[in-house]
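Forum > Structural Biology > Help requests

Title: Can anyone predict the 3D structure of GTPase Der?

Hi all, first post here. I have the sequence for GTPase Der but no way to get a structure on my laptop. I'd be grateful if someone could post the structure tokens.
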Amino acid sequence: MTFTLAIVGRPNVGKSTLFNRLVGKRLALVDDQPGVTRDLREGAARLADLRFTVIDTAGLEDANDDSLQGRMRRLTERAVDMADVCLFMVDARTGITPTDEMFAEILRKRAGHVLLAANKAEGAAADAGVIDAWGLGLGEPIRLSAEHGEGLNDLYTQLMPLADAFAERASEDAPDTDVDLDEDDDTDEAAPARKPTKSRPLQVAVVGRPNAGKSTLINRIIGEERLLTGPEAGITRDSISLQIDWQGTPMRLFDTAGMRRKAKVQEKLEKLSVSDGLRAVKFAEVVVVLLDAAIPFEQQDLRIADLAEREGRAVVIAVNKWDIEEDKQDKLRELKEAFERLLPQLRGAPLVTVSAKTGRGLDRLHGAILRAYDVWNRRVTTAQLNRWLTGMLEQHPPPAPQGKRIKLRYMTQAKTRPPGFVVMCSHPDKMPDSYSRYLVNGLREDFDMPGTPIRLHMRGQSDKNPYKGRRERNAGALTKHLGKNRKG
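Reply #1:
Sure, ran it for you. Structure tokens for GTPase Der below:
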């Protein structure tokens, strides 16, 4: 999915009908009665070779109070802010109304890219409405019939250049991960990690449960109140990216919405916010999991940290609100013990205590982020690995399932960001997970790779000697060659 398209407009202009056609399913209720759609609905859309996320929104009405219509309008406006492209739909048969003109003005100010679609445009009766749509100042209207599937080629033509631009932007923003290594380049000195620059800053996502203090922490780092904060949980709705120079290190910080347990995420907007946070994790190189010192390591904290590990990102655990903690030494000891027990897959990852309110501990957090990034880029030479593997085999040989001894012959590092290793062995499918964990823990400890995700792959290698029979084959070829010469 390269971009997000929000379909907005007055009630009953055909937004849900177009949404259903783009996703290829009847996900949204459709009826002649206006106001059927009340919340946001998200789906995976397909239009020819384009793949994108489409959002069906409630009908825009002229209401700003706390009534149902006012809340629906605020929800739709938030979808406009979150979307990459807005498709503003009008009813070509009804013509342009004062409400259409008012919302066209709002979209011009709020949305980055707005496309205008005149729906229900089949037949001559819609010609006048299509012509009137030009007066909205949003460019040429796309003549659509969502019900009959007409005009989708014109919509594709308008979306294609935008999709290309968003795909190019995504490729620029996406971090280099699972970077292949040249196995022939096996110098004694491993290459250092790429230094962050202004053009390619270090990408850091701050994630955690609602009200852990993510926005407050980022405000403290950048030294100004750029992000809205407060005692209420869930103020931040979408991922916000800020580029800064933090103590000489160019960084792009992602502030994300708080991630609650899936069962508690009922509001459609919050579902979008959480999915936006998950995307921020994928675009980050280092993920800072921010915990509340009063209630650390709840189930959702563990899920968030595990998600970052599964995505192969460097992880830093930061414990916030440390300034109000009374028995700091005992609390820190409890935290470290709980971390080792509950997140063994991140054993050794940096755990730092901070106070977003006072700014204490931010120097330690900066250093922990750089250390995690350095380990994430760590490279070990093949010669070192195979000497190490010999020692590990002598200390604890692999098992012999069904009487067949598993032979580990050769090991090399195939990737970095995160470190990935390949072991050539016999019967890779019979290698128990416990022995793989033994090797991963050994790599983590002996090559100083605490906390970073480590990928270990067992690859099969034939037991046959590749040199066996070569002498006989060479002798046969020589005899054949001499025989030809005699005939000649």
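The chain has three domains: 4-171, 202-376, 382-460. The two ends are 68 Å apart (CA to CA).
Shout if anything looks off.
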